[in-house]
Amino acid sequence: MRVLLAVLLAIPLLLLFGTLLTAADPVFGHLVRSAFGIDVGRLISHTVVITILSWSTAGYVLALLHRGSSPLDRTPAWLPTLGLIEVGIPMTALALLFISFIGVQAGYLFGGEALVQATVGLSFAEYARRGFFELVAASGLMIPVVIVADLLLRQDDPRTVRWFRRIARLQILCVGLIMGSALERLRIYYQAYGLTVDRLLAGAVMLWIGFTLGWFAFTVLRGRRIRFPLGTVVAGLVVLATVDAINPEAVVVRVNMQRAIAGAKLDVQYLSRLSGDAVPTLTTHVDRLHSAVRRTLITALADRWGGLGQRDWRSWNLGYARANDALRGAVGGLRR
Which has the least CB within 10 A, 3, 37, 44, 106? Predict the structure, then answer.
């Protein structure tokens, strides 16, 4: 009965993370489809919807049934507890899934473009472009998984706790390697296509995920659960404040402008869609671009911001004001 319960717990986890990983990597997805004949796209959509609805429903039900609070350093009394078999089998199954994925990644990320081209018909840059956000999602979802597993684990048996901590450390190591794969994809993508705000922010989120998992190992897996929430929240606030301070759109502009000056193609359409925070940096570097690209970019920015017309005071903001001032000089220089 305990083994059956463990299998039932493992199946949804394997479906959730398996669909994310197969979507993240065309090679891994090809191997899974060849082995099981799974429609990955349909499975992903169904799994995501079922997971969100089930998680939300369970949270509301638990909140209604149990209004009391429990100290963070022990499992709440109203939660069911599970033994090593019920927790260990799902966690080990996930670890084996991650190890399989990492093995495929090692072969293809480090095997070169020829191997990827021969297997899935994609260039190396296209291969790296796909699945980055799925890898970030898979890494982030491991945080609630290990937290819930620790909460449900029966803590009165030292042997059970020791084995769980070993399995959890293996999980964290595997997730760290998956995050390394995602960062390698980000590097390859940057070399081929430049940088986007979404990928820069995803990289910042990955830093927070990495810290959170490491902090989990340092606190919860060493019997110091009460320290975990505060450190996680503080780290998140630090990452958020840092991202806000560096102005991610300006960073993206500087990186892509430097690539364009070095001879790479500049995505004018994407840059012109950025907010007013990016415009001063754009106009600062625009004189170093080829004249045709410079004219196209300034024209697109002028169209994007309403031809430099005055906005109603209710829609005024500092970013628009700075963009307006920067564009006046850029358009004036273009007309001269």
Answer: 37
Instruction: Work out the mean pLDDT of the chain and round it to a whole number.
Output: 78
Total structural domains within the chain: 2
The two structure tokens encoding residue 266? 């500049």
Q: Which two tokens stand for residue 37?
A: 């004949």
Residue with tokens 């017309």: 309
Q: Which domain holds residue 189?
A: 2-246
**Does residue 231 sit in the same domain as residue 268?**
no
Query: 231 and 125 in one domain?
Result: yes
Amino acid, res. 278: A
Same domain, 263 and 169: no
Residue where a domain stops, chosen among 229, 246, 263:
246
DSSP H helices in the chain:
2-24, 26-36, 40-65, 84-109, 113-120, 124-129, 132-152, 158-193, 197-219, 228-246, 248-261, 268-272, 279-285, 291-304, 318-335
Higher pLDDT, 115 or 296: 296
Cα dihedral 83, 149, 161, 85 sign: positive
The full DSSP string for 71-107 is: -TTS--TTS--B-HHHHHHHHHHHHHHHHHHHHHHHH
**Residues 27 and 116 occupy one common structural domain:** yes
> Using CA atoms, how far apart are residues 162 and 95, in angstroms rounded to an integer?
17
Question: Is residue 279 pLDDT above 70, yes or no?
Answer: yes
Task: State pLDDT tens for residues 224-234.
Answer: 888 898 999 99
Q: What is the mean pLDDT of residues 190-200?
A: 85
Report the percent of the chain where pLDDT is more than 90: 12
- What residue type is assigned to position 301 of the chain? L
Q: Is pLDDT at 194 greater than 70 in this prediction? A: yes
